[in-house]
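Intended use. Records like the one below are meant for learning the mapping from a protein sequence to its folded structure. Do not use them to infer anything beyond what is encoded.
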Amino acid sequence: MNTRPTVIIADDHTLVAQACKKLLEREFDVIAIVGDGRTLVRKAVETKPDAIVVDIHMPLLNGLDAGQQICKLLPEVKLLYVTMNPDPELAAEAFKRGAAGYLLKSCAALEVLTALKSVLEGGIFISPIIMKEAIASISTESQTTPGTELLTERQREVLQLLAEGRPMKQVADILNLTTRTVAFHKYRIMEALNLGRDAGIVRYALKNHILSA
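Structure written out for the chain above:
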């Protein structure tokens, strides 16, 4: 009987995902590799892994929002974010949304294994290079990005897809909504965030790490 912990890898860069798989297979059972946040949520619900190694910047649904949805559906799953972004405030936001670990992609390979073992044992792991600043951000409520919490989960999904340059019809198809509903969500998003033009959606998404540059 296989008793090794099960892991899903979520990264839209195939070479990175495959390299991570090769590394983790030494001690873990990698049950799936996915390339976007929406597929990640669906696959996590289907397979109920012990842990997920996830990038923050992914298409269709970013890693933060995908992880937050997964935490609500599967609170026992451990989320380990592995990203190129050393911003301590981004790390703080990840932990506020349910992360158990936050690593930089520049870290040593063995650090990934150490981090994954740590979070599976109930610990928290943060890359040492950003640990001090991240902890300060986590404990300072004023660091929360203005406007972020004004949006619903669905509105954040619509925001990312629109910021990716997708037509409203395509957004509607992806989210299984009507075009009219998407248009309404867009209106409410722009109203809540005080955005005067469509370009403001892209700027907001980039500034708040919903979309990568």
